[in-house]
Amino acid sequence: MSLCELRHGQYATIDNISDESLRVQLLRFGITCGSKVRCHCKLPFGPVVLKFGAQEIALGRDIARQVAILPLA
Amino acid sequence: MSHSCCGAVACATSGQRKIVLVGNPNVGKSIFFSSWSGIYADVSNFPGTTVEISSGKIGEDVLLDTPGVYGVSSFNDEERVARDVILTADVADNVVDATHLERDLFLTLQLVDMGIPMVVALNFCDEAESLGIRIDARKLEDQLGVPVIPTAAVKNSGIKEVFAALPLARPGLCHPEVDQAVTRLLDRIDTRPEALMVLEGDEVVAERHGVDPEKDRERVYLLRRQKANEIVAATVTRPEKSARLRDLLGRLCLHPASGLLILLAVLWGCYELIGVWVAGDIVGLTEETIMQGHWEPWIRGLVNPIVSESSILGQILIGEFGVLTMTITYLLGLLLPLVIGFYVALSILEDSGYLPRLATFVDRLMTGIGLNGRAVIPMILGFGCVQLGTITTRILGSKRERTIATSILNFVIPCSAQIGVIAGMLAAVGFALSMTYVAIIFACLAVIGTVLNKVIPGKSSALLIDLPPMRMPRPANVLRKTLIRSFFFMKEAYIWFFAGSLGVSLLQVTGGLRAWQELVAPLTEGWLHLPREAATAFVMGMVRRDFGAAGLTDLALSPWQVVVSLVVITLFVPCIASLMILFKERGVKEAATVWLGAWVLAFSVGGILAQIVL
């Protein structure tokens, strides 16, 4: 399951980010495999905005698709 | 290479120290810069508007400001610029956002691993406090091994203390594993910061030293991230609930329905401020009452006894297009108020944190024309000044995106001065025709973007952006930015105005203007159905675009003629100053294509419209 499929307000842990450059860029923001994130909002066909800690990060659809997640109830 | 001076950046001769301000975007570095050096630096609440490096002097030492970055590496141009400045730093002042410590500490720890003597300014302490975030600065200092000073830079608190602490700057506590790996490289690479870059796989720095980049980036980053998280866990206490109002406001900007409403409200506000109030009331006062009513008769009365207005020199000085009459009136009566109005609006949007949310909001639309939401920044700046927008396309991720963005900027985006004149003229033709104009320009934008996206090979990068908290813009900061930006803009712009009107005056006294009007008369009258004097506006438009637009205000045009002429003038070639920047940024071939293409586009679209409606 990818970040794109996360619903508004839903929590998930990051499972796998296949692209190395994307992986290290997200690492700098504080998102690593195992991080718990919340879908802050989602624009129709557009970016997914994640909230974790006090931070908000917007990921374009193409990037969000490359981030595999495990949804939390 | 790494030890030579870095281009435009001020050189530090031996004996001088280089003090470098480093931090994530929007942490307030520029406030430190301007208050220490006394020289202005742009302060903005948007990632990516400071591409240039500002430099100033503190006594014997050189102070350098760097673009906001999340880490030292080479993911984009800004990072490459920041990296090269940081690598030569003698002392670093790392400014961090107290409300965003887990993000900011990554860069801090990277600087610590570089072994650069540093102090940390823990900024936004006032805001952290009001959010209920408590940070143990003493403990943070122990964990990092460098001085940490709480500050609230916008309130001018703590800035002097950080300055006073600069002599106490020292290298921090390096991660032991990273330390070992870096030390191993030191026999091949002379400085520690560069060795760390090579360890983290930076190809450019590795090549400078003739070594292969190591492959340890991810391992080092992970260690650093873990340490950052540990430090945050040990020093920061957060309240259970975060600030609800700002959160809600931030989310409303992104929600499809409310986001659109907010966008429309913002656009309407800008239109009321710039289009109606400034372009109407203020310009009415400054241009007509003050400049044309008082200045022009006065200067004519002063010059006339010495140089007759009917002589050639008189024409050039105080004639219809005279440098002392029309140029001064346009510059001070028309352009200046409009530019100030535009910068006030832009500064408010920047400081509020709305811009990155706008980038996210429009991302989907931008991907359709081969850009991502970040491209909204150069576009918006382009509405201020196309030159500024063109330079800012450097923040875009790939050459392909830069080409698309600069083309759109130079083909269809009217600059603030031009918008002011256009808005003024549109106000007279009513809502329906104004919307027709807007729709035509948008259609051109969509077509150009779509075609370029199809034609140019490769793939554009996707959006990845940090959304800063929504903040109430501070009037003093907005005012300061507006005044300085307007000043710099006018300083850049005025010479082209004088050159332009001088050129037109010369054309007029030599009969060249009439010849030009005759020459393009078939085009102006037959094809565009406009009075032949409109051709003068096109000549002026090549010099400065708003000159072109302003040249139309004096003509007696029917409402549809206004729309046609505005379409032509909007799509027409960029001004000389923008053309120079375009050459510099994108090369001769691309610039020439855009310039010639603009002729074709402007006259084709304008002509087709004229054939239909006139």
Please report the first level of CATH classification, the CATH class of chain A: Mainly Beta
Order of helices and strands of chain A: EHEEEHE
Distance from N terminus to C terminus of chain B (CA atoms, Å) equals 63 Å
Please give the number of β-strands of chain A: 5
Beta strand % of chain B: 5-15%
Poorly predicted ranges of chain B (pLDDT <50, ≥5 residues)? 1-12, 42-50
N-end to C-end Cα span of chain A: 14 Å
What Rg of chain B is obtained from the alpha carbons, in whole angstroms? 27 Å
Which homologous superfamily in CATH is the superfamily of chain A?
Ferrous iron transport protein A (FeoA)
Tell me, briefly, the overall form of chain A.
globular
Number of strands of chain B: 9
Counting DSSP H or I runs of 4 or more residues, the number of helices of chain A is 2
Helix content of chain A: 10-25%
Low-confidence stretches of chain A: none
Radius of gyration computed on alpha carbons of chain A: 11 Å
In total, how many domains does the architecture of chain B comprise?
A: 2
